Batch of 2 targets.
Target 1
Amino acid sequence: MTRDRTLARTGSYVVLTLLAVAMVFPFFWMVLTSLKDATEIFQLRLFPTDPSLDNYAHILLGKGARFPIWFVNSMIVAIATTSSVLFFDSLIGYTLAKFTFPGKKLIFLLIISTLMIPTEMLVIPWYALSRAMKWGNTYWGIMFPGMISAFGVFLMRQFMSTLPDDLIDAARIDGRSEFSIFLFVALPLVTPALATLAIFNFVGNWNAFLWPLIVASKPKMFTIPVGLANFSGEAGSDWHLIMTGATVAMVPLVIVFLLFQKQIIRGIAMTGLKG
Amino acid sequence: MTLAKKRAMTAYAFLLIPLVFFIAVRFGPMLYMMGRSLTDWSLLRKTNLFLGIANFAAVFSDPAFTAAMVNTLRYALVGAPVVIALSLAIALLLNGITRGKGLYRLIYVLPYITPIVAVSWVWRWIFQTPPLGLANGILGALGLPAQEFLNSPNSALYSILGVNIWVELGYCVTIFLAGIQTVPTDCLEAARIDGASERKVLSRIILPLLVPITFFLAIMQGIQFLRIFTPVYNMSSQAMGGPLNSTKSAALYIYQTAFTKFEMGKAAAASIILFALIMAVTLIQVRFFDKKTNY
C-alpha cells in the first residue's frame, strides 16, 4: 500500500515535471535563439557557440529601430487604460453595492451583459467610429474601447459589497462628501481587489492584438504585439531577430508575473469561482 | 429633496459617464452594425443601399466562409474538451503532491500571461521545416519521420490548436485547483475513515463537486476557441489562414473581409453569425449549468 503510494507520487512528479519542461522550454529556445547569429540558426545546436547581444542592439538601437517606440506606445496604452479602469470600475462597483436607487438592477445587468458581446464583432463599428472621429493612429483611438471593463465592475461590486455600511454612514455623519467617502474611505479598503484588477488589465492591454492592429496603421503608432507581428512578417528567415523581438515583448510581463505571482494566481482563481 | 432622493441623484451622477460609455462603445456600435449589415456598407464609397439579407446570403455562399466556420467549430469542439480534460487531470495530480505545488502551477501559467503574438512566433519557429525547426530536430533525433506541421492543410490547424491549448492550460489548471481546494476536507476525511478508497473519494466526492467549475470552464473555453484569431493570424503564412484556408477561423475571415477587402456589410453579417453561434453555445450551457449544478 505505501509502496504503491510512493510509486504513484513519483509518477506524478515525473509527469508534472515533464509538463513543466514543455511549458518553459519554448521560452528558453526563444532566448537562446536571440543570442545566436544569422548563420548559427541553421544549425540545430541548443546553446550558441558565441552568445552575443548584437541582435538586441540591432532591434533596439540600430538605425530605424522601432521597437523602443512600440514599447513606449504599449506602456502608455496599458498604463492609461488601467488607470481609467481602476477609477471607473471601482466607482461603479461602489455605487452599485452601496447605494439604493431605482433602476439599479437594470443598470448592473446592462453592464454585465456587455461581457457577452465579443470584440471580434465590435471592431467593425469601432473602426467606422474612429474614421468618422479621426481617431485612427492616435493613443485615444487604441485606448477608448477599454477605458471601462465590465468584468472589473463585476469584481469591484463583489468586493465593495463586503464593506460595512456603518463605516460609510459614520463618514457621512462626519460631513464628508459622497465622492470623498468613495475615494478615501471605501477605496483604501479594497486595495487587494484593485491590485488584482490592475495586473489583469495591464497584462490584457499589453497583449491586446486585434483592435490595435486595426486602428493603428502607421508603424509609429503600433503597440508591441502589432509591431512584433509586422516586424516578424517582414523579417523572412531572420529568426534570430524575430526571437529577439519576441523576448523584448515578453520582458515586462515576465517582470510583472514574477513580482505579482500571488495576485495573478488569485485573480485567475477568482474568475473561476464566480467572484 | 429627501435624503433618499439626494443619494439616488448622487448614484446617477456617479454612473453617468460609465453609462454613456457602455451605450456609446458597446450597445450603440452593436446595434449600428446590425443595421448596417442589411446595407451595402463599404468604407470606400458613400452608399447606404438597403439590401435586406443579401449580405447574409453572400456570406453563406462564400466557400471561404464555410471553410472558416468548419475550422472554427473544429477549434472549439476539439480544443475546449481537450484543454478541460488535460487541465483536470493535471490539477488532480498537482493536488496529490505536497512539495512544489505552487512552483508547478506558476510555471504552467507562464504561457497564459505572455503575449500570444510572441508565443505564436516562437512556435512558428519551432515548427519550421528541417534543418531549422526544433520540433523536427527532436523527431529526427528520436528516429521519427519529419512532420509538415504548419505547411500541410492536414496538420496546420491542429498545430495551431496545440499551441492554443498550451496557452490556455495553465489558466484552467489554476481554476480547477482552486475548485478542488474548496472541497470540504472533513468530507474527504469522513469518507476515508469510513474506508472509502482514494478512487472512490475521487469519483464520488471530488469530481461531482467540480461539475459547476467544469461547466463554467466549458463555456469560457468554448467561447475562447470560437473567437480564435491571434494565433491563426500569426502562425499562418502572410496571415491568410492557409495553407488553402485550412486554418482560417471565423474571426480571421471577418477581419479580412472588413479590413483587406473593405466589404463592411458582408463582414458585419459574418460577425453577427459568429455572435449568434457564441450566444447559442452560452445559452445552451447556461441552461445545462442551472439544472445540473445545484448542490
Target 2
Amino acid sequence: MTDDPWEPFLSTVRTVFAFLVCAVIVLAALALVVGLLLLVRIHLRRIHEVLYLGDHAGVGSPGPEDFAWLGYHGGPVWWDLAEVYRRVRLDTGLFVVFLYPFLAVQAVVAAAHLALAWAGVVVSRLVDAALLAARRIRMVCPNCFEAMSYPSYVCDGCGRTHRDVRPGMWGVFRRHCVCDRALPTLLLLGSADLDTRCPHCDHALEHRPGEAREFVLPLFGAAGAGKTRLAHGLYLSLEHGAELHPETLSVELMGEETERRLRESRTVLSPRHRVAPTPPGRRAHGATLRVAAGRRTLLVQMYDTAGEWFNTHERTEELSYLGRATTFLLVLDPLAVPAVWEALDAEEQRRLAGDRSGARDPERAYLQVRDQVQRQYRTLGAAPGKGRLAVVVTRGDLLAGTSVDPRGTPPERWLDEVVGAANLLRAARVDFGSVEVFVTSAVTGPSGAPDPSLTTLSRWVLARDAGALGATLREPCDPLSDAGEERVPVSAGTGGPS
Amino acid sequence: MIDPRHRYRTVRRSTAFLLYLIVAVPTLMALFLLTDRTILLVRSVWETLVP
C-alpha cells in the first residue's frame, strides 16, 4: 500500500478545477439561454405589434390612381416582413444574426402565403375562363361593338368603376374598393349583380353580360328596305311565343335604349302604321333581348343600322359588330327592285308607290357588308365561310294578290325569277356557309299576333346558336298553329308599309 | 372607413399565430436540447476530473 501525501491535495485541486469548469459551462449555457430568450422575445413582440395588432397602418394604402386596396398577397405580406425585420434589427443590433433563422422562417411563411394566394388567382381565373369558353360566352358591347375580355363593374358603395375586377393583386375572391365595399372578383362569384360598364367606352351595360351566351344579329340592307320593321317583327314573334307559353319561354328587353326602341312593336307592326326611317346620322346600337327557355338563355343583340351606313366602305368599316356575328339578315325591299316594279300593273304601281323605297340596288349593301365581314373575320382569325345569311324579302303582305304574288312559289325561285337576284344568291352561296331566302310580312293580324313568316324567320335565326330556343318556338308556340285561325290574311289593299 | 389597424386583420392574425408557433416551438426545443447537453457535458467533465 502506497500513501501519496499529495493525493488529498490533488483531489481537492481536481474537484475545484472540475467545479470551475462546470460552472463556466453552466454559465455559458445560461448566457445562451437568456440571450436566446431575449432575442426570441423581441422577435415575437415585433411580430405581435406588426401582424397581430396591425401597427403598420400605411401598408397597402391605395394611390390616387388606384380604385381598390391591394390584397395581402399583392405586396403587404412582404412589407410586413420587412417592417418586422427593421424593428428587430433596431432592437438587437448585430445580434440580429442569431434571429436570421427565424426571420428566414417568416420569409418562408410569407412565400407560402404568396404561393397559395397566386395559385388561387390562377385557378379561379382558369375555372372562370373555362366555364365561359365551355358555355361559348363572348361578350360584345352593343355600343362600341368591342369584344370584352371582362366587363367593368361599378362599386355600389361609392360609384367608382373598377376596370378589371378579376382575381389578381387586388384580391383573390373579393376585392375591396377604396371605400371599403367588398366586390366579387368573378362572374362565378356574383359580379354580374353589380352595375356593369363597357371597359372600352364606359357605356352602361344593362344586360348582365357574361351570364348567358350573346348572339349578334346584324340586319343590313338599303335605306327603306324595312330593317326597323323587321327588327320589331322578330321581337314581337318571340314575345308572342312567350305570351302563348309563359312557362317555357320568356323574352325580356334589356336596358332603357332597347325598351325605348322596341316597346311599341305591336303598334309599329299594325298594318296601317308607317315606320319612320332610321336617321342616317344615328350611331348603330344593339338592341338586346334576353330570350330564355328553361335553363337556356340567349342574349340577342339586334343591330338595326340605317341603310346609309352600308353605302360606303368608310362607314361600313365602323360597324365592327359585323365581325362578331355569324348570322346575318340581308333585308330587301322587292318594290324597290326595277324588275319587280315593272312587273306590276299600273293600278298596283299607283297603290304601292308610297310604300316603295328609293334604293334600287340591293347588291350594293350586300357587297359592302360581305367585304367588311371578310376583312373583320381575317383580322379576328375567324374561319371564313362559317356565316349564315338570310335574304329577307319584306313587304310580303303588300305583294299578296299582285301580279308578282310570292305565295305558292318557293322563295328562292321567286327571288331568282321575279326579283332577278340570281347573281346575288350565287355570290352569297360562295361567301356564306348557308343561305336561305324568306318572304316576310312584318305586320300583325287583327288579334295582334305577328305574321307567321316572322316566327319562321325567328326559328331559323335561333336554329344554329340556340336550337332549344328555336324548338320552343316551333313546337308549342308556333303562331301558325296557335294563332293562325285568328288571323285574317292581310290583303294588299289594306296593307301599310312592312 | 376601416381602421387601418384592422385591415388584413384575419390574414395578419393567422400569420402571427403561425409565427408564434414556428418561433416558440423550436425555441423551446432548443432550450431543452441545450439544457440536456449542458447537463451531459457537466456530468462528463465532473466524472472525468473527479473519478
